[in-house]
Each structure stands twice: as structure tokens, then as C-alpha cells.
User: What shape does this take?
Amino acid sequence: MLIERRVLFTPQGELRMRALTILIAAGFSVLVFRLFQLQIFRGPEMLRLAEINRTQIIPLSAPRGLVMDRHGDILLDNAPNFSLFYSKPAASQTEEERNLERELVRWFPKQETVLRRKLNEARRTGKMTRVLGGIERSTALALIEKKLALPGVNVVVEPQRRSRHGAFGSHLLGYVDEINPAELERRQDQKYRIGQLIGKTGMERMYDGSLRGEDGGLQFEMNASGRHVQVIRRIPSQSGMHLFLTVDRSLQEAAETGLAASPSQRGAAVAMDPRTGAVLALASAPEFDPSVDVSRHLGDPRLPMFNRALQGSYPPGSVFKIMTAAAGLESVKWDVHKTYYCPGVFRLGAKEFGCWDTHHWRDFKGAVAMSCNVYFFNMGLRMGPDPIEQMARAFGLGEKTGIDLPSESLGLIPGRAWKQRARKDLWYDGDTVNFSIGQGAVSVTPIQVAVMLSAVANGGTVWEPFVMDHIVDREGQVLYQHQPKARKKVVLSSRTWTQLHRSLQAVVLEGSGRGLQRPDLVLGAKTGTAQNPHGKDHAWFVAYGGLPDQEPSLAVVVFVENGGRGSVAGGPITRAIVNAAFPKPPVMEVRP
Amino acid sequence: MSVEITPRFFRSGHESWLSRFMARLDWQLMGAALALALMGLFFIYSATFRSGHGNSYLVRQSVGIVIGLLGMLFFVALPYQVLQTYARWVYGFSIALLIGVLIFGARLRGSRSWFDLHFFYFQPVEITRLALTVAVAAYADAYPRGLREWQGLIVPLLMAGLHLGLILLQPDLSSAIVLGPMMLALLFAAEAPVSVLVAFLVMGGLALGIPLADTYFTLAGDHFQGHPILALVRSAFLGKNEFYQVWAGFCGVLCVGWWFLRKWRVLIPGAALLCALAVIVSGVGGSFMVKKALKDYQRKRLIAFVDPALDPLGAGYNILQSEIAIGSGRFFGKGYLSGSQTQLGFLPEKHNDFIFSLVAEELGFVGALFVLLVFFSVAWRAYDIAGKARDRFGRYLAISLGTFFAFSGFINIGMVMGLMPVTGLPLPFLSYGGSSIVGAFLAVGILLSIHLRRYIL
Assistant: This one.
């Protein structure tokens, strides 16, 4: 028989043995519970985290849709471009990060600030981030060779927006850049993501949703030190839709060239088809180069990022006399044959209002043709400010035109109510005098003037101007065709229309717009030289017309900021645009 | 007194020593140990086959297992009472090893804990802890009544303290910490007064707590801006001299207070005051050691489990990745050799301290629970063996060794699951490391020997 144990142990000792066993059993129960919690309760969450660890997605940007002018001439397309992406490898330590940063700065010494900012962003978010775009081909290839020494760095080919004609139409077309947090917040519902390119201004911004297409992606398996193990899947990107504009490249080019050659090299030009409201050209000078980092333009005192055609609000000067004339003819049955004497100055009480010349006796046509201020002072005082204000508002001044471009200004049409509200003062005759020649508080944008002029040309239809004509999808199917939209109709008597057209045509035939004469066209025009408290006068030149016996098919507005005399600064530009729209017939060669 | 009746076959007069040996051996313990070691081999392969070192990890670990098994057989064959007889020599030998490693040892990763034996590094602490156990168990057996008074605890605590000090000098914090529970369990089983043990537990806790709190407050940076009380506490821990001055002042207040209370006939035993002072001195000393011996990243590891955000790229990262590895294994795991966290290198020290996470990722809850249960069964077998041992020496020895397995397992697995600080304590049997596996198998050998010789007649 085998005896198991000596009688050395006390009951107390046995009890303690049992206590210890219970203690370790409790300890292991805690471990089992924790294991259960991690693997069963939080298993799905942990699996997701493991997947995030394991895979990285490089977004493959979709090529943006093409943008073409009305003749199918390509204005914007895409060029392959190398971009550098970075995501912090999971196991990367501070020291390695510092080395990588130093190495990359050595590669791109000029972009050091951007580089450091983007690398920090990548580390903070832990996501695949575009660090640099537009890398030169040779640099990109060298980087790809060195990739093993640069863990976490990826060089990929991305389609980059390219303007076929450089800065051509930069204000109209706009530019693209990475989406900023504010935009991301605003467009939450539209599937934008950090680092995505988005249209910032112009057509790129207005039609971003159509142009941007669907990004693809390359999903990698990546190990802790940031090296690729394998490609898991590749989702191809889908190109965006293509945009056909109403713009005519030759007109746009004429406008831009003309503005660039103008005295101040600052200004705007708009050409419109008065039959539809289609914008044929929309230029603002100076232009900006959309291919470089636009932030460098921000400090430029000439404000190249400012779209003067839409955002700029200026005193219209004598161009506004069209409105005064229309209001006078309509409201007080103005006798167009009655002449008024212009001594070169107009006295109202103690104040003197000057005319730019001494025009002596002038009737309506002559006063419009020579842009006589005194004549219009008399007209304005006779009817008061209200008919002028009503007429200007009827033609769409003082309100947004509704063009499909961002950041339009309102302009300002003053009046009794406005003065009471804004200046807490009564409207005086002096205000009427100023108002009737487009001076004082009144201000307009070039696009508003173009809409007004079109309405004059077409007999009262105030169009909503548009730049996008139709959108086609990747297969060339037309998805959307824009229909011209009349905002309102100004109804005036036929006498008024006839008198307006005659007098405006007289501007070309015998007045301040003689430089525009074309024997084969019927043209009306008006010049304007707007005084401006901040500096030299602004120059305006507006014209409309077309072939004889046809509806006018062109309305042109040219504005030169601080350009001086309207006929001098604006005339050549307008002429160039008109000539681009109506190419001169070949001169007949007479052979003996 | 219980009696075990063995089957008739073995009781008959013509039984051989071999059949008796086979019948009395604790197959469950040996099976569990072998199963864990084999599993360790498999997962060391999984962790390292992509490392570019070929099979060198696997070969070294196998060699370790073979040496361990041979050592185990030696201890099975050796009557464990021999250890009791030569306990003084065993203890002396262990002290010699610990002093030797401080003088002749190789410095690896900042600690002088290894003997460089050319073909592998030998870590003596894996053996000396067995020796310490033997010595203390022998003492407890020799003076059973003495241990029930607190004065009787002085000698065993001095013996352990000497080990502790020498190990901390290497420094090897985690190996030093594991001695505490081993000794406490042994003394507890030897019926030392619970109050004294609890006092020691509290003291040990404070002695560890002060350095931990010090480390936490020093490294927590600006976490406490705007929290007036914590910021005040933190400022007491910052700065070199202020820290010691504050604690010296505190000690002074204690002494003066004790003296005044005595004057007013409020008698508090002097021992209590001495204990309190000892705690503070050991805590401040420990804090000094931690600051002096550990690098910043090692100190961060100590406290990362409290707040992984303190060190998101270092120890916090390790814990997080380990938790992700374990959790993402879910119920059935991702399959052997196909754990993404492991194979793609997100899991740190995967063949070593974090091998349990690897098992949990690739085999899932099923596999991890299996490991936990087998590990628990090793500890449970040791306690059961202790319960059935024929003498006190055997019982104390078995208790201490069982506690070593249980505590190491608890600390290591708790660490990889984010419950315990990152101390760098390997998981016995599974973690890569020759000395560790040899030490573990030697302990199993001693346990088997105690079990084999449990009968009096």
C-alpha cells in the first residue's frame, strides 16, 4: 500500500493551497474574458483596423472632360503628369520620417514649403496624400528607381488639366486645384474627398460635377515598412463629360489680344449674340496662368484673379445715356427734333456740370452721336430720376444677369428710395444730373451692359446669358442642350426703338464711334468715358449690329479700366472683335 | 490524510522500476509542456520564415527544447530531496552566476544579462530563480514554526532581496518583478502571517508604484494642463532635486509626527514607522534606478498600457497592433502563416514577447483559448502536485514554480491584450529564447520529480 503524504500539513496550510488555486483560476478567467472581448465582441472592428493596416489605396484621378468652343475647337484637355503620393508606413519612426523628408527636400528644393506641409498632413491623417503634382518626367523616373530607399512614397501618372492655348480664356474657363476644407464641408453630399482636384473658378467650377468624372483607385497590400507586396485590385477611372461652349475662339482671342494691348492692360470685354444671349467671348485682363500655383497671383496689385467682366462694378459713364434716352423718349414724349444749346458747361444753382466739348445746338441724334452731356442733363431734369431708374432696372441693370459663371456682382442703380435708405438723404436735382449721364452712384458690370445692349439690339428681350451650350458624355451622346432663356421683355413704343437705333448708328456714322465703320455692316455704338474718383477715367465702348436686312447678331461691350477716352481705348478692341465676328469680304481684284 | 490505492498490476510484487515510473509520472503536465513547446516552434516558424534568417530561429529553439528535455529528464531522475540537502550550495551557485554575469556578461539591448557562450547567449536569471526557490523552500522546511512569526521571514526575504538587487543591477526589471509573486506564494503556503505578507505586497506595490508614477508624470508631458491637482502632483515629480526633497521632507514629517504622537501617549509601533520609511526609500530608490538605467523608450513602455496615446509610435503602437492582431483573428483565425498583422510586420517582437498575439491572429479564439487552457493546466498541475507532495520542501517548491508559470503567463498574455504594462517578460514554453525554454523544462522536471516521489511508502 502506498501512503501519499506525511501528516505535516495543518488545515490552515490546506486552506491556503486552495486559496492560491482559486487566485490563479480567477487570473486566467480574466484573460479568457479579455480574449473573448477582443476577438468576439470587438472582432469585426479589429478586423477592419487590420485591413486598414494592410491595404493602401492610391486614388487614380479621372481625366476631366474636354472643353470646346462653339466650333469644336478644344480649349482644355488633359496631359499625363507625374505626381508624388505619400502615406506614412505603419512602422515608420520619427528618425526615418526625418530622413525621408530631408531626402525629398533634396529632390525638390524649390517646393520645400509645400513638401513639408503636405508630408505633415499625410502623417497627421495617415492617408495616402498627394504631396506634389507636375513632376518632370526625368525626375519622376529617377524617383521610381529610388523607390526602395523611400518607403511610403509612390509616383503615379495622373491626367493633369492642360490649357491648349496657355492663359487663353483663363477667367472664362477657370482653373482646378485641390479641394479645401471649406469646400469639402459645403459639398459633403457630392462624394468629394480630401486631396481631390476641383474647379475653383469659371466653367471648371460651374460644371465641376459634369467635368470631374469618377476617380479610380489602385489598392495595394502594403507591409509595415511601407513597401508594396502586391496589387489587390485596380479600379479604372471614368473620364468626365465634355463641354461645348457658346464661345467663339476667334472673338475671344481678338478680345484678349485687344485688352492686352490697351493703355492700362486692364479691362474686360464681352461679346454676345443678341438673338439668344449666348456669350461669344468673355475676357478679363490681365489673364492668369492656370497651370502655375495661382496663389502667387494673389499679391499682384493688378488683380489678375479678379474677373472684371463679372465681378467688376464700374460707373458706366455715357454708355448709360442709352437708358436715359430710352426713358426720355418713352416717359415724357421727348421731341427728338428740338435742339438744346451746349455751351460746354451746365449751371444748376451754384454748381457747374461740364460737358467734354462745346457742342452748340444739338438735336437728339446729334447729341447721342457726339455724346453731349448738356443735352442729357436737360432730358434728365425734365423727367426726373424715376423713369431712368425704372428703365435701367427693366433692362436688367442693378441685378445679377444669371450667367452660368460664378461670383457675379450686382452693380448699383440708385434712385430716391436707394438714397433715402443708403445715404439717409433726399434726392436732389444734382443727383439727377449725374445719374442721367451714368455718373454718381450708378455702377454696372460689363456683362450687365452686354445684356442691356443685346436687349436694345433685339427689341427688348433681356436674356439670361449663357456660356455652356451643350454637354456630351464619353460616347458623344448629347446629355444636355441649353435653351436660351428670356428673363423679361422690355416693351417700348416703336418710335423709341427707331430713334434709339438711328441715334446709335449715327454714333458710328458721324459721331464718336467713327472708327468702327464697316460699309458691309449695319452697326450701332456708344462710347463712354466714365469719371472715376480713384484715378484716370474708365473707357467704355459698346457696339451692336449685323448684316444689313438681318437681325443684329452681335453685341460687344469693351471696358478698359483707367483707359481714358472711350473711343480711343475701347474703339480698336471693339473693331477687332467685330472684324473677327464678320470677316471682311475679300477685296475684289480688278484685272485689266 | 488521504490514501491512494494504485491499480493491482503495479502493486503486484514483480513490477519493474520502469513500469512504476511510467505509472507515476505526471503525463498531463509533461504533455501540456510539450504541446506548448511544439506550438511555440510552429509559431516561431510562422513569425520568422520571412525574416531572411532561414531556419536559424527554429533550429536554435529546437536545440533549446532538446537541452531542456535532457535537463528535465535529469531532474526527474534526481530525487528532489537532494536539492534540499545541498540548498546552500545551490544558493551560493546562483549568487555566483548573478555576480558573474554582472562582471563577465555581454551587454545586449542595454542590459548585462547574458553570458556569451559563442553558439548562444545564456541568460542565468532563468536558472537562478529556480535556485532561489530551492533555497527558500529548504529554509521554510527547516524552520516551519519560525515562519509563522514575522521575525522568521527576515532570512528568506534577505535571500530573495539579494537576488532582486543583483537582477536589478543588470538591469532586468521584468525578471526581478516575477520573483515577488513566487516568493509571496511560497511564504503564503508556508503559513507566514497574512498581515505581514499583505504589508510586503503593499510595500512592493508602492516600491513599484512610485517609479511608475514618477515615469508617468515625467513623460506625460502636457497632458495635465488645465487640471490643477494633477498638474500640482506632476510638478512634484518633475525636476531632479525637487523630487528627492519632497520625499525626504515627507519622511521627516513622518518621523516628527511619530515622535510627537509618542509624546502624547499615542503609541505606534516603531516597526510600522520603519516599514513606512522602508517603502518610501525603496520606492524612491526604484525611481532612481528606473531613471538611471532605462532609456526613455523603455520607460515609455512601462506606462504605455495606462495611456497608449503617450507613445503612439513606440510602446503604444505595439500594444495597439497586438490588440488588432488578436481581435482580427476572431473565432477561427486567419489561418496558419496567413495573419496579415504578423506577416506584413505590423506586430512587433512577434516570435518573442508577442507570440501569443500571433497564435490568436492565425488560429483565432479557438487556438488562443486552447493555449490559455493548456497554460492554465500547467499551473494547475503544479499546484495539484504541491497539494500531493510528500513533504513541505516539495510542496513549497511546487507552489513557487507553479506561481512562476501562472504569473509569467498572466503578465505576458495580459500585456499583449493591453491589460498589463509592456515589461518584456517572455511567455514560458512559447516565446523564442533558449535560456527561457531550458529554464521552463527544468522547472517541469523538478515538478515531475516531486510528483513521482509523492508516496511515503
About this structure: Chain B has one domain: 27-452.
